[in-house]
Design goal:
Archaeosine Trna-guanine Transglycosylase, Chain: A, domain 4, Transcription Regulator spoIIAA, Rossmann fold, 7-stranded mixed sheet, 20 strands, 27% helix
Length: 396
């Protein structure tokens, strides 16, 4: 965990972003590498004039180094322990540790916690570890032990779910599994609502933790409304709408497995509640002819663009999707619309939604601008970390 494998020298003038504490070194900025280096190795980064800039994990690809420290220090057990403790301290200050009403939250959020390439979500005693770099994958056992040391009995197990998140060029064959302890997929709580989480077979780490506060806001807008939850996955927005007093709630997803999970979660909270129905259907097909049927529509699609070369196509999809919702929602209705694509900026997303509104010809006003919750902090020097964008819109 401590050895520096090589020194990376940058081209002249390419040190400025690191001097502004941006934690990424792009491959095009590199002049030379002093020694043979493998993906996941720790490397020192220096300027063309041999000025120290940072220490980070090397990886193959456009982002060649993710900086762990801008100080020339030993990256050892104490370093990792300190970073994890800082992450825990933040969650404690947010009231998320030992919270009887909410026991699911993000424990580590990559660059936002000074641990680029690492995501850890906490589910009522189980931490789900997800490495997005080989460097973080190689030290998964050591970091799991440190998490247990810091959290004690509060942490029962650590499950590694890095199989599909590591770079495709990485020369390793990861297999998901427990790093520490063992636990069964379980029922967790969010603002008092219960839901079933399956970190083994579910999407992401098992649940979309980042929509917690936005689900809570949906509850506040739902009283007496007819609600449509598109791309419902596990039904989080649906049971929050029911909690808020919605008249009817319809959940839609193209995945039969997602609809099954939604029905399970709604039944956990509101058994035999006739207000809820769930449908397996394509979003655009379902929304083709629902004129005036709903006065609250939630659009939370999966990432339409995971890479920059898909950006234009993604923006067109956001435009068409939002236009369809604006055309169909009742007068005086509310639309919650989101993008979780990191490559789609806030401005680009808003432009797509604006274009959708213009196509619909409706009068549309912004009530809220939404983002990820505080347990998904954004490093101020790394604006790319603000990946979740959302708008709450009033449609006359």
């Amino acid at each position: 965990m401590t050895n520096i494998s090589a020194t990376i020298v940058l081209n002249k003038g390419k040190e400025q972003s690191l001097k502004r504490f941006h934690p990424w070194v792009f491959s095009g900025a590199i002049k030379k590498i002093s020694d043979e280096v493998k993906e996941g190795d720790l490397v020192r980064v220096v300027s063309n004039n041999n000025e120290f800039l940072g220490i980070g994990h090397f990886q193959i690809g456009s982002i060649a180094v993710r900086i762990l420290s801008f100080t020339d220090q030993l990256i050892d057990r104490n370093f990792w322990l300190g970073r994890l403790q800082e992450a825990l301290n933040l969650r404690s200050s947010l009231g998320l540790l030992n919270n009887e009403h909410t026991n699911v939250f993000r424990l580590v959020h990559g660059e936002g916690d000074g641990l680029p390439g690492l995501i850890v979500d906490f589910y009522n005693g189980t931490a789900v570890y997800q490495a997005h770099t080989v460097g973080m994958y190689l030290i998964r056992h050591e970091l799991s032990v440190l998490l247990k040391e810091l959290m004690g009995e509060q942490l029962v197990a650590v499950y590694d779910k890095s199989e599909k998140t590591l770079p495709f060029k990485a020369d390793i064959e990861p297999v998901n599994g427990y790093l520490l302890g063992e636990s069964a997929p379980t029922i967790v709580a969010e603002y008092g609502n219960r839901f079933q989480v399956d970190w083994v077979d579910g999407q992401k780490t098992g649940f979309f933790v980042d929509q917690r506060e936005n689900r809570h806001l949906v509850k506040e807008y739902s009283k007496g409304r007819d609600v449509l939850n598109m791309f419902c996955y596990s039904g989080g927005f649906s049971f929050c709408a029911l909690q808020g007093g919605a008249q009817t709630v319809h959940s839609v997803d193209a995945s039969a497995k997602a609809i099954e999970l939604t029905r399970t979660n709604v039944e956990l909270n509101y058994p035999n509640d006739a207000r809820h129905e769930a449908f397996v259907a394509d979003a655009f097909d379902f929304m083709r002819d629902i004129k005036d049927k709903y006065d609250l529509i939630i659009l939370d699609p999966p990432a339409f663009a995971k890479h920059r070369n898909a950006l234009h196509q993604a923006l067109q999809a956001y435009k068409r999707l939002n236009a369809r919702a604006f055309e169909q929602v009742r007068s005086g209705g509310i639309v919650f619309t989101f993008s979780c694509s990191q490559v789609v900026s806030k401005d680009k997303f808003r432009e797509a939604v604006f274009s959708g509104a213009a196509i619909s010809g409706r009068k549309v006003r912004i009530l809220h601008q939404l983002t990820q919750p505080a347990d998904h902090p954004v490093n101020i020097y790394h604006p790319e970390g603000e990946y979740l964008k959302g708008l709450v819109l009033y449609v006359d």
